[in-house]
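Handout, section B. The chain below has 171 residues.
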Amino acid sequence: MRNSGLISALLAACLAAMPLAGGEGANASSSGQPMPRFASLKSDRVNVRGGPTMDHDVVWVFTRAGLPVEIIAEFENWRRIRDDDGAEGWVYHSMLSPRRTAMVRSKAKDELVPLCDKAEEVCSALAKLQSGVIAAVKSCTGSWCRIEGADFDGFVRQERLWGVYPGEKVN
């Protein structure tokens, strides 16, 4: 039993280095992908759990495929995500797609966001989009993003989208 102190110290060091659900070290990327990053939901039904195993309770269910979410941590095949309201939980990695989407966000409740024909302040508005509209992100310059939906294709100020970081460039 002379080595019990050494074994205890080694065990404590190993446990401290392991990523724990929601704890320190949970931001280590097990996939090798950058952290944090945006992704989108693959399915119309995605269970969000309280922790990174099937043993954890389902906290809520997303019911909208294509919804952008931010991956903020990884643990094995689980991803801790955050939605546009700031709610966080764990989803299985296969329920996420690397396909970039964004949600239109207006500053005021009933304000419509202009979809421009070009990435410039002075532009022709092709349409006006409601807050909550989801679109595929085609590219971003750091100030403007080209987005596309079923019935539209144009440019929106990057600050009016949730699903891309401020100043982020997307090709």
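Note. Residues 24-99 form a domain with the SH3 type barrels. fold (CATH 2.30.30.40). Compare this with the example in section A.
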